Amino acid sequence: MQVNIKIRRYNPEKQAKAWWGEYTLQDCSRTDSVLDVLHRVKWEIDGTLALRRSCAHGVCGSDAMRINGANSLACKMLISRLGKEGADSINIQVEPILGLPVLKDLIVDMEPFMEHYRSVLPYFINDEPAPADGRERLQSQADREKFDDTTKCILCAACTTSCPSYWANGKYVGPAAIVNAHRFIFDSRDEAAESRLNVVGDTFGVWRCRTIFNCTNACPREIEVTKAIAEVKVALATGKV
Amino acid sequence: MANPTVHTFDAVIVGAGGAGMMAALYAGKSANVAVISKLYPTRSHTGAAQGGIGAALANLEEDKWEWHAYDTVKGSDYLADQDAVDVLCQDAIDVVVELEHMGLPFDRIENGRISQRRFGGHTNNETNRPVYRACHAADRTGHMILQTLYQNCLKNKVNFFDEYQVVDLIRVDDTVRGVVAINIADGSFHIFHSKAVMFATGGWGRCWEVTSNAHSLTGDGAAICMRRGIPMQDMEFFQFHPTGIFKLGILITEGVRGEGGVLINGEGERFMERYAPSIKDLASRDVVSRAIYLEVQAGRGINGKNYVHLDVTPETVNHYFEKDGEDMRISREYIEQKLPDIADFTRTYLGVDPVKDPMPVQPTAHYAMGGIPTNVDSEVLLDAENRVLPGLYAAGEVACVSVHGANRLGTNSLTDLVVFGKRAGVRMADFCDSAELLPLPDNPAEEIMAEFDRIRNNEGNMKTYTLRDRMQKTMTANVSVFRVHDQMAKAINDMDEIKTDYTRFITVDDKGKQFNTDLLEAWELGCLIDLARATAASAIARTESRGAHARDDYPERDDDNWLTHTFATLQSDGSFELTYKPVTLGRYEPKPRVY
Ligand SMILES: Cc1cc2nc3c(=O)[nH]c(=O)nc-3n(C[C@H](O)[C@H](O)[C@H](O)COP(=O)(O)OP(=O)(O)OC[C@H]3O[C@@H](n4cnc5c(N)ncnc54)[C@H](O)[C@@H]3O)c2cc1C
Ligand code: SF4
Ligand code: FES
């Protein structure tokens, strides 16, 4: 089948303004991903096209982009999902994720995103000595289940860069940082919930969330992001985790 | 071009996967360490590991590290060094516990301990039955290891240089002085001047067409070392995992079979019963991959095609549990809970719901058993006489200790990363304590900068992807699951031509500096080509069948002549010198390998 793909291009070494590159590819297969198509553009047509990618199956988080107006991972979005059933040509439009500075073509500066992530103390804190028998700390299956969903995050930024509150104000820590705070706040073995709640309870924390659900829809790991944010809000309101 | 910026550290670690970050945590306790990674650390391929990390915790049933060691040696087809395997299996227990203490969210069993599952080749040595040894967090164990190590690195304020790609090692005689790297964002060259260097750059599955490996797994660290005179050990042993998604190569973890999944051929037969009567679908990977090939060859693929089915639907699994006299029964919910990512992959990429329908699978290029030779302290060896190159370390998939020998058992790579990554870190910190920072030679980046200029400006007519495609095709056709002299000779020939074409005709479109991934991909292809050539040269010389190296013309294992590790050293004319080092045996005498 034929794919017509429009890609938002930008290369500050050459030209100050962004432009649209339009490419047509023949012999695409319904089961190709958008990443496959981008690779064909890069390899066969224009090697200057810049994008990040690595695993090609949705687990490394490199290739979040805006595809036909919604964020997803290029490698997880099959082109057949973007066209009408039975159509013999598909139109695709690809842009960098919104809200982070674009560096070249589909590559954005991840640093502001990572800074928000780091601000929630995204690491295990427990200063008690480990069990004297030299073995693992115990955790019940029920306690483990409480934060299972938020352990799945691959830091792809699809959620944060689909959030209107984040677009409105880049100081908002954003859904991804809250997801990672949640992962530790609700871990029964961790002892620093309070410090993290202070960060996400701040004016640029969870209260910026207007439950628009874009994040949940965008998350390629199917994390219930809005629910995690709500659980953090409840913990803040009740002081209980 | 501007002079490269010079950074000075006690130690630089190249690669931020499981091995690199584990080393960073330990080396960083006393030394000033930089971790350089071409990907953001959390995007390293360790994050793709699914099934589990092997350690004889005995949380569900009796188990001992000695059984783990025996299984590893047997799995390796007796090519692993048994002293190193002892270290792996003993240290495994403490390191897995340590990961838990670092916060890793393992799945739990009812009493609150770490959950374990069955995996190929791991057995109770007394009953020969599969044993619960693979510690796991659902089917994203590697993801949780990678995240946990990264989190702990942030906590310990490790210096990361993200999206810097190392392109050369600065070696002066038998000392190392640092590495040369490119900052991918702006194309600038940087020199990292250091007392110690460690490579933890992962594998090179991209030499083959169908692979479970990321696009970024291009063997850079191994190729860099090889070009600087370090031999490559046991390159002929590359693992083909039996269950990659048909055509795509995306891995379906052995954990699926650990939970009861079975392989079924075009005649509806559970064919592994014929090849491995006692542990069947959970035989070692080389055995299962060969069985799939033979089934397909005999016309028993699904609809006569070159794939078989992996069936984990409760109906099928429970049927065979009952037949085998197992008490266990599974439900759809159980599969969803234990294998959520697998279910997601097959739904996304195949439109197959694994709780209802079987998945089409074929062997996929998966894991490099060979690589940079090291001892059990992760120090790099210069030759088959075990001479150490002081200050140079390697761990993880890029290294060959050797604990995997001719065939790695599932779950033993993650164990390898953390065990030998840690040992590298500890040893490196000691080394940096006493070693001097030796001066840099004049213009250490000159040679590699010239090579990049050459690729950038070469007026050829061959793009990276066409040459890569040729390499992958010949390696897949001629140096994969089954091998024979004439085909390997053809691969060697083809690879020589590809190397020549690469040198003369490679061309890139992007002549710029910022994020010039076109240029970097072209350079990476050069690495893959060198590693593919080392693989074929090592393989054709080994006239026996052992583990992943299965030859039609030499179908038997030959312990009289081949209980040896291959060392392939790249010569200035592009050929390889092959030397051999005897395997370190121990408690386990080589015997025929039956499952
Ligand atoms: C799909 C899949 C599933 C697996 N499942 C399991 C499992 O269940 N159990 C198990 O034990 N094993 C499993 N394995 C194997 C195991 O995951 C890998 O062998 C292991 O993770 C490799 O880790 P590493 O630290 O050596 O390298 P990687 O995690 O691959 O990291 C390599 C690092 O090197 C960096 N790098 C590479 N080149 C350069 C360069 N030139 N300059 C700078 N940085 C560079 C990269 O950025 C990256 O940070 C699996 C493998 C795959 C592919
Ligand atoms: S929560 Fe989901 S969308 Fe957001 S960064 Fe994590 S994986 Fe990506
Ligand atoms: S390339 Fe890894 S998530 Fe898409």
SSE order and pairing:
The complex is a heterodimer of chains A (241) and B (595).
Chain A: E1 2-9, E2 19-25, H1 34-45, E3 64-67, E4 70-73, E5 89-95, E6 102-104, E7 107-108, H2 111-119, H3 141-146, H4 164-168, H5 174-185, H6 193-200, H7 214-218, H8 225-238
Chain B: E1 5-14, H1 18-27, E2 33-37, E3 53-54, H2 65-75, H3 82-101, E4 116-117, E5 134-135, H4 141-155, E6 159-162, E7 164-172, E8 175-183, E9 188-199, H5 220-227, E10 232-233, E11 238-245, H6 255-258, E12 262-264, H7 272-275, H8 285-297, E13 308-311, H9 314-323, H10 332-338, H11 340-350, E14 359-368, E15 372-373, E16 379-381, E17 388-394, E18 399-400, H12 412-434, H13 446-457, E19 462-463, H14 464-478, E20 482-483, H15 485-505, E21 506-507, H16 517-541, E22 550-551, H17 559-562, E23 564-570, E24 576-582
Parallel strand pairs in B: 1-2, 1-9, 2-6, 9-17, 15-18, 19-21, 20-22
Antiparallel strand pairs in B: 3-5, 4-5, 7-8, 8-9, 10-23, 11-14, 12-13, 13-14, 16-17, 23-24
Helix pairs in contact in B: 1-4, 1-12, 2-3, 3-12, 5-16, 14-15, 14-16, 15-16
Bound molecules: flavin-adenine dinucleotide, iron/sulfur cluster (SF4) and FE2/S2 (inorganic) cluster.
The site of FE2/S2 (inorganic) cluster has 12 residues of chain A, from loops.
What would your notes on this structure say?
The complex is a heterodimer of chains A (241) and B (595). Chain A is α+β, with helices and mostly antiparallel strands and 241 residues long. Chain A has two domains: 2-107, Ubiquitin-like (UB roll) (Roll); 110-238, Fumarate Reductase Iron-sulfur Protein, Chain B, domain 2 (Orthogonal Bundle). Chain A is elongated and about 65 Å long. In chain A, 29% of the residues lie in helices and 15% in strands. The mean pLDDT of chain A is 96. Chain A contains eight helices and seven strands. In chain A, helix 5 (174-185) packs across helix 8. Chain A has helices at residues 34-45, 111-119, 141-146, 164-168, 174-185, 193-200, 214-218, 225-238, and strands at 2-9, 19-25, 64-67, 70-73, 89-95, 102-104, 107-108. Chain B has 595 residues and is of the alpha/beta class. In chain B, helix 1 (18-27) links the parallel strand 1 and strand 2 (33-37). The longest helix of chain B has 25 residues, at 517-541. Chain B is globular. The interface between A and B is large, with 58 and 60 residues. Bound molecules: flavin-adenine dinucleotide, iron/sulfur cluster and FE2/S2 (inorganic) cluster (FES). Residues 53-56, 58-63, 73, 75 of chain A line the site of FE2/S2 (inorganic) cluster (FES).
